[in-house]
Automatic annotation (TrEMBL):
Phylogenetic placement of the source organism: Eukaryota, Fungi, Dikarya, Basidiomycota, Agaricomycotina
Superkingdom of origin organism: Eukaryota
Name of the protein this chain belongs to: HAD-like protein
Length: 194
């Protein structure tokens, strides 16, 4: 039985890996449901269907952090093309966007350099003029770092997350304390070219 959040997360990741091996290609909701069922089985605890549905909703539709919608809208209003780097299938992501009122120009699921370049090409954007922004540490970002500069928002990151970024060699092109600082930095750069 997991003793803390970290062990619970590790069990989730382990079960997710097993489910993906057994049933590749599941959509995010089905995958989460199978993982939770596997976890309950491993821990020897019952998982009523109603509880499972609420847990899948929590995993697949987490609320955005306060102010994110306003930040995204500000970037779009200033002329930026905002492309989401999603960690779920397109249908689940679109449902999440509708639920919380987000509108992105496009989204990328696999952050390989080729996929990134393909989407940037659709918008006729030179990778040097693009910026990947993350307010969390995601290993998903690592492959994309070879072609696109990355900004790391430190607000809300734990010391553990900052250390994990450094240990894994994730180096951001720009590190800022808040979304507002990032917005001001982007505006300053844009204004210097006008």
């Amino acid at each position: 039985m997991p003793r803390d959040d970290q062990e619970l997360l590790e069990l989730y990741m382990h079960c997710e890996g097993l489910v993906l091996l057994e049933k590749p290609g599941l959509d995010s909701r089905s995958l989460s449901k199978k993982v939770l069922e596997r976890m309950a089985q491993v821990m020897g605890v019952p998982l009523p269907e109603s509880v499972c549905v609420r847990m899948v909703d929590a995993i697949c539709s987490p609320p955005p952090r306060d102010g994110l919608l306003e930040d995204i809208n500000s970037l779009r209003q200033s002329g930026c093309s905002v492309i989401a780097l999603r960690n779920m299938d397109a249908e689940t992501f679109e449902t999440w966007c509708r639920r919380y009122g987000f509108a992105f120009c496009d989204s990328i699921c696999q952050s390989t350099p080729d996929t990134c370049l393909e989407v940037l090409g659709k918008f006729k954007v030179n990778p040097a003029n693009a910026l990947v922004v993350s307010s969390r540490f995601y290993r998903d970002l690592e492959p994309i770092l070879s072609v696109v500069p990355t900004a790391q928002i430190f607000e809300g990151m734990t010391e553990h997350q900052r250390d994990a970024s450094a240990i894994n060699g994730v180096r951001c092109s720009l590190g800022v304390d808040s979304w507002k600082d990032l917005y001001n930095s982007v505006q300053s750069v844009r204004n210097s070219f006008m």
